[in-house]
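S1.2 Input.
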Amino acid sequence: MLVFVINQNKKPLMPCKPSKARKLLQAGKAKVVRNTPFTIQLLFGSSGYTQPVTAGMDTGSKVVGCAAIANGKSVVSVRNLPERKRFEKDGQTEDVPENQKR
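S1.3 Output.
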């Protein structure tokens, strides 16, 4: 799990490990901006350097897999998303509204 980081100007930076975020918070060099997803904002100037990130998707029959990879080797984020269920009405396929799912 990684912690999202934004700079003083609210521009996104590369995520960091929870231990690094904890140290920045304890030293007073960062503050918590959001709890879900956990995001901190730096209180000091930074270079704003970010690494190129590649997004990958695997559309399976039951779930869709999403991944973000930095530097071609380190995985930044991995998610498995269930597909939306569909139903047929008068011969047309439609998405099930969120409030009607059981």
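S1.4 Remarks. The first helix runs from residue 18 to 26.
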